[in-house]
Amino acid sequence: MSDYSTRVTEEKQSRVEELRELFKDGKGYIFTDYRGLTVEQITKIRNELREKNAVLKVIKNRYAKIAFSELEISDLDEILKGPTAVAIAHDDAAPVAKVLYDYVKETPVKVKAGIIEGKLFGPEEVEAFSKLPSRLELIAMLMSAMNAPAQNFVYALNGVTTKLVRTLQAVADKKSEG
What is the pLDDT of residue 40? Predict the structure, then answer.
């Protein structure tokens, strides 16, 4: 009876290294089951994710486990089963999650899980995350809230000067009549 062993070839090592390099720059990872998608649908998803500074990569689970373990990310055994594609967000993960959940509604793609800011989330939590405003939207809301008092102050000052000008004009009109 011979023992089973895997040969570690240079090709396998280079693929794991390639994945590790791809994963190390990511700020968020969303794992999907892409079964049933056509080439056109995958291309469309990839193009939309590229606009959000993200990449969709179909991965070999064994290589991905090794690459993630080298980056000290574990507990992915249950997630990395079956056909898996991972969306890697290089900036904010919220827009990436939104794009993927838009496709969940209209295609057979299924979200398995996500790693966002180093924390593992299930599919329901990733869906809830996708519904939250993105970082840029939150910054815009904050800037709007911070700008409102100053804007109201300008409107108040403008109202005082307008009232003064109207009063002076009314006085001038009365003097010209009388």
Answer: 92
Share of the chain above pLDDT 70, in %: 95
Domain ranges of the chain: 10-132, 135-178
Of 116, 109, 142, 140, the C-alpha closest to 130 is 116
Q: What is the mean pLDDT of the chain?
A: 86
pLDDT level of residue 6 (50, 70, 90 thresholds): low
Residue range 32-38: mean pLDDT, rounded: 90
User: For the chain, what is the HEC assignment?
Assistant: CCCCCCCCCHHHHHHHHHHHHHHHCCCEEEEEECCCCCHHHHHHHHHHHHHCCEEEEEECHHHHHHHHHHCCCCCCCCCCCCCEEEEEECCCCHHHHHHHHHHHHHCCCEEEEEEECCEEECHHHHHHHHHCCCHHHHHHHHHHHHHHHHHHHHHHHHHHHHHHHHHHHHHHHHHHHC
The count of other CB atoms within 10 Å of the CB of residue 26 is 21
In CATH, what is the architecture of 10-132? 2-Layer Sandwich (3.30)
Mean pLDDT, range 37-54, rounded to an integer: 91
